[in-house]
Amino acid sequence: MPLDKSYLEYPHRSYGMDHDRYDWSMLTDRKDVNWPNGKKLALWVNVSLQFFPLDQKGVPVKPQGGMIMPYPDLRHYSLRDYGNRVGIYRLLKAFDKYGVKSTYAVNAELAKRVPYLMAALKERGVEMLGHGWNMDTIHHNNMEDEAGIISESLEVLSRYSSKEITGWLSPGRFESDKTPEYLADAGIKYFCDWVNDDMPYNFRTDNGPLLAMPLSKELEDQFVLLSNLHSESSYGDQIKDAADMLITEAYEQGGRMLALSLHPWMMGQPHRIKVLEDILDYLMSKEEVWSASANEILEHWQNQQ
Amino acid sequence: MKNDPGFYDYWPYDNRPKMKWPGGAKVAFWVAPNIEYYELNAPDNPQRKPWPEPSPAIAGYSTRDYGNRVGHMRQMKLLEKYGIRGSISLSTALCEHHPEIIELCNERDWEFFSHGIYNTRYTYGMDEQQEREMIHDAMETIYKHTGQKCAGYLAPALSHSELTLDLFAEVGTELFGDEGGIYTCDLFHDDQPTPIHTRSGKKFVSIPYSLEMNDTIAYVVNKIEPRRYGQIIKDNFDRLYEEGTDNSTVMCIPTHNYQVSCPHRLKAFEEALEYITGHSDVWVTTGREIAKHFIKNSYDAALADIALKKQGS
Questions:
Q1: Does A14 touch chain B (CB under 8 A)?
Q2: Which domains does chain A have, with CATH numbers?
Q3: Averaged pLDDT score across all residues of chain A
Q4: Less packed terminus of chain B by CB within 10 Å, N or C?
């Protein structure tokens, strides 16, 4: 039996993208962007603070970093918890030492569970991003009341934030077809799930525009160290090489952005924190680097569009 | 199903007739950027899902899209810097979606060869007529948008049928005579070009394309660190260059703009290109030029030698 004839039909085979979410555009064709004080590279460091429930449902897929052993998977449950108890405090010290600004994508359920940590973050006046309810609440097309989960997540998290929450990172970066609509409806201005650019860009929803703020997946600690099983020193090399390349490009083409995605349950380990410190030292000692929050970067970017 | 695809005979790497590249080069070196379009909502194929993750496959889709939005210009600039004309393995729908990229490459006299329509449309399950239609569509699209007579094939997402190479060779001849459909990148059995049997009996060759040097295989399947990828490219080259003193070889680096052009990977790739092109006896060329040169100068001698060696002598 041959394939259905529709398999050789291509309804979206025309100029631009095969969907309406954003316009096709090559980075080099866009207007140069200048960062404040002549800086070349905006460094955005985002830390994900996450809760992986022990009674994981895994619908429609198991979250990466979640439970993989038969119930009760104490090893993974407690190892993830380690990040929020121990690792995060090492990260905070490192950020302070090197003067790095950082943002925090927080699962709402976690915020409720760790008031001490949330108070410490609020005290620091950090920018927080909605990160869904928990890591096992994955956004997908058959999700019940996705809009309600988004608004509840944001409502809960905002109790712990000194600032209005305008950013979003979906748990596991999974979305339904409607997630961008619900986010726009809930007052979100930027979201970070799509990783198709090295700069922000405009994203359409039926409920008004969003900004896409790509949070690099290829340089994420979890991807490099856990999925690829690269060494800690290679992880450091990769980030340094990336920064060098982007700075070189920025001298020719206008400002660039380096988005680092960190998990305290990974980088907060005693054997890894030194590598993170080395990276931050390397980046912050470059005169071209501007450490900024997502909103600060977006504000400068938007003002120049 | 067959026990052996029957495309080629056993031809030992030992005592082959001398193959000569232009200028007496030891290695024919070519870079094959895969410029691909993956659909966000591709139809299901009975044998392979377009995306492993639930729909919409944002991670997979947006990673690929990065290659076209950001990565392409970086790799193109780099190849230009080292005097390399890319041989593009093209998702031909890209001619319609992103004609700017096609124009930039065509201006630089890069080669375009067929990599199907979309990298999310697989050959699996097509009957002969359907596959012929898909192959025809892709080759015609390249001609329409670039004026190039498509010489080579890498099946979309390396998805094949038993007839893939036969059909590509036949459609190539129908459309462009002797210039169309003369080589394949789908086989990984050799470091030299080799004659391939097809139904029509035309002169048709396999050009080494190297799965091992392919950045996606290196980074996604083998999970190699960027600097190590740069090193294995150099090591691969060193050996082929050394052996090329005795009998010429081919080295290919197949790339993807969403892999090799990422900020943390470009430097290692650049160092490897600088190293290779810094050697004197390298023929920096394209897939089509290698195929044409081999067919003209070495094809018949290869066939005779294969026939001889089949008898065990």
A1: yes
A2: 40-303 (3.20.20.370)
A3: 98
A4: N
Residue B191 has pLDDT above 90, yes or no: yes
CB within 8 Å: A15 and B96:
yes
Q: What confidence score (pLDDT) does residue B129 get?
A: 98
| Average pLDDT over every residue of A252-257 | 97
Cβ contact A2–B129 (<8 Å) = yes
Interface of A with B in 220-239 (CB under 8 A): 227-231, 234, 237-239
Summarize pLDDT for B18-74 with one digit per residue, the tens: 999 999 999 999 999 999 999 999 999 999 999 999 999 999 999 999 999 999 999
- Can you state the percent helix, strand and coil of chain A, rounding each to 5? 45, 10, 45
Q: Spell out which residues of chain A touch residue B68, defining contact as CB-CB under 8 Å.
A: 26
Q: Is A197 on the interface with B (CB under 8 A)?
A: yes
- Quote the DSSP letter at residue A32: P
Q: How far is B215 from chain A (nearest CA, A)?
A: 14
**Over chain B, what is the mean pLDDT?**
97
- CB contacts under 8 A, B 170-209 vs A, are none
pLDDT at B312 over 90: no
Domains and their CATH numbers in chain B: 23-310 (3.20.20.370)
Reported as a single tens digit per residue, the pLDDT across A95-112 is 999 999 999 999 999 999
Instruction: Find the angle CA(A271)-CA(A276)-CA(A279) to the nearest 5 degrees.
Output: 135
**CB-based contact A99:A291 (threshold 8 Å):** yes
Closest residue to A174, CB basis, from B54, B65, B266 = B54
| Contact map slice: A 262-291 vs B, CB within 8 A | none
Can you tell me the mean pLDDT for A117-139? 98
Instruction: Read off the pLDDT band of B194 (50, 70, 90).
Output: very high
